[in-house]
Write a structure and sequence with these properties.
193 residues, alpha/beta, Rossmann fold, Arc Repressor Mutant, subunit A, 7 strands, elongated
Length: 193
């Protein structure tokens, strides 16, 4: 019988063994899986790269420095939850600017872990999808602008051509737009020095 898919894969960066044990127990009880543990902030990027967690829980106080700074180093690629007993406004503001997506207070209340991790992973996926959509729109807009300039088309006509090419080739419009931009860069004269 195959092993069931875990609810989330979690890594933790905390030098306090009882806190790590609390997280491990709560993750297991909620159907998650622990994929990595570290006790120093400097080890966080390696743990994230190696364990490929869905979410990382960071303590604020680490033996080699500030957990918020360590969290900032990985926050772009994986959602981060801060785990601390401190509630100072300054800490919350630093955590927010570091890309931390949620805050759990010590001592851990196991009932709070699952909803927090569910929310964090869902919001991170939404944010990632929104960024991707925005980037794709930018590519389409650039390609549309190039078609307008090169072929002296209206904005509507340039968009229609991109859409028609996408439909005819059964490929996403962003792929067609990228091809337009690549073909444009290949056909341009090199800059003169």
């Amino acid at each position: 019988m195959p092993k069931p898919t875990p609810r989330w894969r979690v890594a933790i960066v905390d030098d306090h063994e009882p806190s790590r044990a609390d997280i491990r127990a709560a993750v297991a009880a909620a159907g998650g899986e622990m994929t990595g543990e570290a006790t120093r902030g400097a080890d966080a990027p390696a743990i994230v790269a190696e364990a490929r967690p869905d979410v990382v829980v960071f303590a604020v106080g680490l033996p080699d420095g500030d957990g918020v700074a360590a969290a900032a180093a990985v926050a772009g690629g994986v959602p981060v939850v801060l785990f601390t007993s401190h509630t100072r406004d300054e800490l919350v503001a630093r955590a927010q600017s570091a890309g931390v997506m949620a805050y759990l207070l010590k001592p851990l209340r196991p009932a709070e872990l699952a909803p927090t991790l569910d929310l964090v992973t869902a919001r991170f996926a939404e944010t990632r999808q929104l960024r991707k959509t925005l980037e794709e729109r930018k590519v389409v807009e650039r390609a549309k602008g190039r078609l307008m300039d090169r072929l002296k088309l209206s904005e509507d006509e340039a968009f229609r051509r991109l859409r028609r090419a996408a439909m005819n080739s059964r490929r996403p419009m962003v792929e067609i737009a990228r091809a337009v931009l690549v073909s444009e860069s290949v056909t341009e004269d090199p800059p003169r020095i």
